[in-house]
């Protein structure tokens, strides 16, 4: 992991300190439109506003202590983040560096040459490139080229268990999908919903299709779809996936109220923690969510594991799905000394101090040697499991709604909602997706 001091390199970037200070003073904080790409000497950096921004705040403070080209960090509320980014890119108010999910979330920007291709930067600095797990770097790429640098913790989707509910029923967490089918009946007989699901938000339902398709047909099916092959929606594994979804819904796996239950407002997580449901398929952030809102449950009764194996499936059981991490991308209009400074800021994501800040924040970093530091994590057992899950994965599929451009992603979420609600049959779902 690169730990080279940035001070010496960044001193070479300064042109005139007096001019830099004056320009930085004029650049503002990025909220008033005075900054943005090319709008001043300071770099305008946008980040999604949540509990993890404290890590990026400290990184900016360290950067500004040594760099003559300063950074202004703007935290954008989550509900508006993607819309604000899409409407700002290509305008004077666009950020110079911005947080994103990689893949489809930035593919439109790549197509319009709005982003800096970072492939050569990574290839020319192998120490920097090798600081990150390959599966994480690759998951954020667009058509084999790198436009993002990992900057937060890994976020695989995994199965969470209410161990108190399992103990009361006298059963163990499932290893195979046949076990899942048996447990559905066990928990229904106990008056417990087998799986908590925030169906009102749709994307939690999408997680089920991601894993089912991967296990039924392998990650290659989705890769074809992501590469623009609409016919791949008609792959037999996709129909089998949709049929399995309907099987689960009809069997009562998600109860009767999942259509109105949300995740964003903590409905599904609270229902799960309070014993209403036995299991919850969710991103790794569920641990932090439960720790914040249901701390006693998180400490004593929360269990976790991989998605169960589908024994007759073609997919590799080690493959994972979710948001590999979040990425920093650079506006293609950034140039000269400001570009050099931007690259130096991106390289901070591989430095040990930044990695340790992520761990102290409860995240599991995506760097190649993070495992050596995870004993200091607040829950080292959970962190090591998550890190091993990703490190040993044969493939990491980016969440579908982030992997696809905005228009097909919106249509897909609408169709997934209708599949779960019974408004589309499995075959109708497949047909509808082939038409997108």
Structural overview:
Keywords: Signal. The protein is α/β, with parallel strands linked by helices and 436 residues long. The protein folds into 2 domains: 7-154 and 324-372, 3-Layer(aba) Sandwich (D-Maltodextrin-Binding Protein, domain 2), CATH 3.40.190; 155-322 and 397-434, D-Maltodextrin-Binding Protein, domain 2. The chain is 47% helix and 12% strand. The chain contains 22 helices and 11 strands. The chain has helices at 7-11, 17-27, 53-66, 78-88, 104-111, 119-124, 126-129, 134-139, 163-169, 177-189, 203-217, 219-226, 236-250, 267-273, 286-293, 295-300, 336-347, 352-360, 380-391, 400-403, 406-421, 426-434, and strands at residues 43-49, 71-77, 97-100, 149-150, 155-162, 193-196, 277-283, 302-305, 320-323, 327-330, 396-398. Strands 5, 6, 7, 8, 9 and 11 form a 6-stranded mixed beta sheet that branches. It has a 5-stranded mixed beta sheet with strand order 2-1-3-10-4. Mean pLDDT is 89; it is low at 1-36.
Task: Present the secondary structure layout.
Blueprint: H1 7-11, H2 17-27, E1 43-49, H3 53-66, E2 71-77, H4 78-88, E3 97-100, H5 104-111, H6 119-124, H7 126-129, H8 134-139, E4 149-150, E5 155-162, H9 163-169, H10 177-189, E6 193-196, H11 203-217, H12 219-226, H13 236-250, H14 267-273, E7 277-283, H15 286-293, H16 295-300, E8 302-305, E9 320-323, E10 327-330, H17 336-347, H18 352-360, H19 380-391, E11 396-398, H20 400-403, H21 406-421, H22 426-434
Parallel strand pairs: 1-2, 1-3, 6-7, 9-11
Antiparallel strand pairs: 3-10, 4-10, 5-7, 5-8, 5-9
Keywords: Signal
Signal peptide: 1-27
InterPro entries: Bact_solute-bd_prot1, SBP
């Amino acid at each position: 992991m690169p730990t080279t001091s940035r001070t010496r390199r960044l001193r070479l970037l300064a042109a005139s300190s007096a001019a830099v200070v004056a320009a930085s003073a004029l650049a503002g904080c990025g909220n008033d439109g005075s900054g943005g790409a090319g709008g001043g000497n300071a770099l305008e950096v946008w980040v999604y506003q949540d509990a993890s921004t404290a890590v990026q705040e400290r990184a900016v403070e360290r950067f500004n202590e040594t760099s003559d080209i300063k950074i202004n960090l703007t935290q954008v509320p989550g509900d508006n983040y993607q819309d604000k980014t899409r409407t700002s890119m290509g305008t004077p108010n666009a950020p110079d560096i911005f947080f994103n999910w990689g893949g489809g979330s930035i593919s439109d920007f790549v197509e319009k040459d709005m982003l800096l291709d970072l492939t050569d930067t990574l290839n020319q600095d192998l120490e920097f490139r090798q600081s990150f797990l390959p599966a994480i770097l690759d998951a954020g790429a667009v058509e084999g080229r790198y436009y993002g640098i990992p900057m937060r913790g890994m976020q695989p989707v995994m199965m969470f268990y209410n161990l108190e509910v399992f103990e009361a029923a006298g059963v163990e967490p499932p290893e195979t999908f046949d076990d899942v089918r048996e447990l559905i009946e066990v928990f229904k007989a106990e008056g417990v919903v087998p799986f908590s699901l925030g169906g009102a938000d749709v994307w939690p339902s999408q997680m089920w299709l991601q894993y089912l398709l991967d296990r039924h047909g392998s990650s290659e099916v989705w890769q074809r779809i992501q590469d623009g092959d609409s016919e791949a929606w008609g792959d037999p594994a996709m129909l089998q996936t949709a049929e399995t979804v309907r099987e689960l819904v009809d069997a009562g796996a998600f109860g009767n109220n999942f259509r109105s239950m949300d995740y964003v407002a903590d409905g599904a997580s609270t229902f799960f923690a309070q014993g209403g449901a036995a299991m919850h398929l969710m991103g790794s952030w569920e641990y932090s969510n439960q720790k914040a809102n249901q701390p006693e449950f998180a400490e004593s009764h929360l269990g976790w594991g991989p998605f169960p194996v589908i024994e007759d499936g073609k997919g590799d059981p080690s493959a994972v799905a979710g948001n590999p991490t979040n990425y920093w991308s650079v506006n293609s209009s950034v140039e000269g000394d400001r570009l050099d400074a931007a690259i130096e800021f991106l390289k901070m994501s591989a430095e040990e101090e930044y990695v340790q800040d992520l761990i102290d924040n409860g995240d599991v970093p995506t760097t190649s040697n993070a495992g050596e530091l995870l004993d200091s994590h607040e829950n080292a057992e959970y962190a090591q499991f998550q890190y091993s899950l990703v490190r040993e994965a044969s493939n990491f599929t980016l969440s579908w709604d982030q992997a696809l451009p905005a228009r097909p992603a919106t249509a897909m979420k609408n169709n997934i909602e209708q599949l779960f609600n019974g408004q589309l049959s499995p075959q109708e779902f497949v047909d509808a997706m082939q038409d997108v």
